[in-house]
Every structure is written in structure tokens, then in C-alpha cells.
Amino acid sequence: MASSAISLSSSPTTIVPSFLSLHPSLSRNLSPINVTSLSFSSSSHNLSSFTVSVCLNSSDASTPIEKRFAAFPTVLDIDQIRDILPHRYPFLLVDRVVEYNPGVTAVAIKNVTINDNFFPGHFPQRPIMPGVLMVEAMAQVGGLVMLQTEAGGTRENFVFAGIDKVRFRKPIIAGDTLVMRTSLVKLQKRFGIAKMESKAYVGGELVCEGEFLMAMDKDSSE
């Protein structure tokens, strides 16, 4: 077993993802790795500085594969997501939020399964997630960024206003876990328009990216 302590400065919303970003460098020597424990402490009341202690187990033949990989962290679970987004089955395409900074950025996952209702028709012989639904999922992560009081939004005022520079790099199939990061690029409060950029990954490989415009009309629910 290897043990290491890492000191870093971070906000409470990015402490876990900051730790996760260490995986590539660690996994070069310990691949795959098993995170057996994670703890952090702070010397200040506002938790602006953390000391993270990580215990890692290197892979060996005696460790079953199902025990080698840490699960995604949960910053927002599905119930909390439903409290923010107005979408419901079959159009809620975000399962968990793993990093969250309201009004700035969010990272979320969509578990793509053969039980998703679009697969029987797209396509029966080769289940591929439709590109338009990948874009919709990424936009819903943008909704989580903007539809909060911290960002000046509410759950009633989020609509698509434009899509630009969308590229599909690789098909998404049943069994994939889609990891999406959507960030606010520019907010024009006067016009109620937010420009966002988003990238989606499977297994660390970029599969889709694009830019979105979202209209936030505060009078739309009246």
C-alpha cells in the first residue's frame, strides 16, 4: 500500500474534483488504483485550504477488478437534480453531479443503458445515443449551472436560444458513462442571455463538444 498527502488550495465545490484530477499522474505509476480512504482537514474557518490524505492500493492479481476503481463522488444526487431542473422522464438526462459551482461550472454524468427509451428506434441493431440528446444532456448540465439563486435564475426561465460549433467525435453506446462539463462563458444580464461551452467524455476521451446560448427570461413564468 502506498500513502501520500497532498496539499492544495481550493474552494469547497472543487475539492473532490481537484483530487480526482490527480488520478492521471498517480495512475502512471499505480494503474489502476484503488482509493481506500479519503479525508481532508482545514486550518481556516472558510475551508479555503485543504490537506488531503489519500490511501492507494496498487493493482495486483489478487485484487478483484470490481474493487480497483473508486466510484464517482456525489455532489448532487438525482433528487437534488430534480429540485433544480424541471425535466422529467423520459427527458431528464443527468443522473449525478460530481462537481458544482453555481453560476460558474458543473460536471455531471449520464449513465447510458439499454433501457433508455430511445434505443429501440436508434438503432435496433446498434444502440447509439442520438447526438441531439447528447447536446440536450450537456445543456441540462448548463441548466444546473444557471438555474440557481446564486446565478440569478429560477427553474422556470431556462430555454435554448442557440447552438454553435457542435462536434461529435465518437458514438455513445449502451453501457457508456457520459461525463459532461458545462461552464458559463459570458452572461449578458441586460438581455437575459448566457453563453456556455460544454465538453463530454467517455473514459477520458472527448466524444462531443459545443457552445450553447440560453435565454433566461425572468418574466417567462408570469
Please report the total strand number as a whole number. 9
SSE order, one letter for each helix or strand: EHHEEHEEHEEEE
- The number of helices is 4
Through-space gap between termini: 60 Å
- Mean pLDDT over all positions: 77
Rg, nearest Å:
19 Å
Largest sheet: 6 strands, antiparallel
Q: Quickly give the structural class.
A: alpha+beta
Beta-strand portion reads: 35-45%
Shape: globular
* Strand arrangement, major sheet: 4-5-7-8-9-6
Q: Which regions contain 5 or more consecutive residues with pLDDT less than 50?
A: 1-58
Helical proportion?
Answer: 10-25%
List keywords for this structure.
222 residues; alpha+beta; 4 helices
Give a quick summary of the entry.
15% of the residues lie in helices and 37% in strands. The protein is α+β, with helices and mostly antiparallel strands.
